[in-house]
Amino acid sequence: MVVRRALPTPPRVRAAASLFAAEAAEQGVTPGRRMLYVGTEPAGERVAAALRLPPGADVLARRKLLLADDVPVRIATSFFRLDLFGGTPLAEPGFVRPSLQAGIAALGHRFGHAEEELLARPPAAAEADTLRLEPGEWVVEIVRAAYGGDGAPVHVLETICAATRHVFTIAQVTGADEF
Questions:
Q1: Predicted local confidence at residue 142, as pLDDT
Q2: Of 28, 42, 46, 141, which one has the fewest beta carbons inside 10 Å?
Q3: Is the peptide bond before 10 cis (omega within 30 degrees of 0)?
Q4: 56-94 burial, b for 16+ CB within 10 Å, e for fewer?
Q5: What is the DSSP string of 74-125?
Q6: pLDDT tens-place string over residues 84-122
């Protein structure tokens, strides 16, 4: 099973209720998802930096497993500052309806820009178990930090992708290409 992940995410996909479901549908793959965790946890170094918090500060985490034709391909965790999102509908268990993006917007946050970083690395033991990786398989970690129009951090998405199950398509912004 190999799925594609476009970087940056095309607007037609970003506007969908489920980014992964929209991507999967375009590829002829049956998507699945399972919520793994909703609650507070200490922020790792990359997430804390993106949210402009000290490492280890408590953040709201929403972690789900994404499947393609019943094969686990990604672990996606959304992180939010507790001072902005604690006690809101985003802190409740289960999936946010109609979408996480709509839930963020309903709280008054508007998208300004995002930055994405990719890192290839060996998986942590829990990641290897959850993604059912064979020994020696690696993951690609994508950290996408989204900021409001005022530049304030709003949402960090950490996606752990089974490297052997992904192709990453990276596109330049139209009109900004140089040779």
A1: 92
A2: 28
A3: no
A4: eeebbbbbbbbbbeebbbbbbbbbbbbebbeebebbeee
A5: EEEEEEEEHHHHTTSGGGSSS--SS-HHHHHHHTT--EEEEEEEEEEEPPPH
A6: 999 999 999 999 988 888 899 999 999 888 898 999 999
